[in-house]
What we know:
Elements: H1 3-23, H2 28-42, H3 46-74, H4 80-102, H5 109-129, H6 145-162, H7 167-177, H8 182-205, E1 217-218, E2 221-222, H9 223-246, H10 249-272
Antiparallel strand pairs: 1-2
Amino acid sequence: MELLDYFLIGICGSLGAFLSGLLGVGGGIIYVPVLTYFLSKSGMQGDMLVKGILANSLFTIIFSGSVSSYKQYKMGNFYPREILLTAIPGMLSALVTTYFIKSGSWYSFTTFNYVFASMLLIITLRMFMAKKPSHNLQPEPEAGSLHYGITGFFAGMVTAFSGLGGGVVMTPVITDILKQSIKKASSVSNGVIPLFAIILGVYNLSDSPSDKISEWQVGYIVFPVIIPMILATFIFAPLGVRMAQKTEQATVRLVFASFVGLVLIKLLYELFIK
């Protein structure tokens, strides 16, 4: 890769980090398309490319999610009980799903793209069609432990299959089904995401791919590609968190749905037209 490539990765990583803080999605919405392009350009192909995208996206999310969650904690918008209830079953489901993905070549790049596109379509429709938040003075309902656990379980599977971090599931479910505020949903999601990513990151570092594309590659993690994105998280993820605290829920929803929609359009173009 050339110097311009690293600059572009850093710019895209900055956007991903900002969205991580703003929306509680870990940044994977941006990281996955960026990694798809640059890992492919660097020589990854086939099912190895899918495994590389998932591994590097989740490894980067360790940092974007952790920085965002720490900023939430410093601002007093932190929910450790809900985070643990969601994270523990999700970590188990994510690890088991990742094991089966890596046990063979059945999860091809085409399959990955169809899964990714289907999930983005559901999320986009859900966010655009969601009811506007009520402005009455009734207290926020209390969501049960089982609800958070089930949410985490499926978010862990989505994390393993998509490399998105699981926030694209947790944020809509916690707001639309569990009826919590989007600021709380973003905080819980930001707390859960790095826990998912850490356990999968360690697993991916210890793996041994059949071929390597860089001397600075450990397992499936290609450090020259992800370091510019990781560095960007320390500046732009806290900015996103601060922006989320000052922005109306309806605006945050619109930004969330718009970015997911743009990524979906690009993916559908590559699948069916290009």
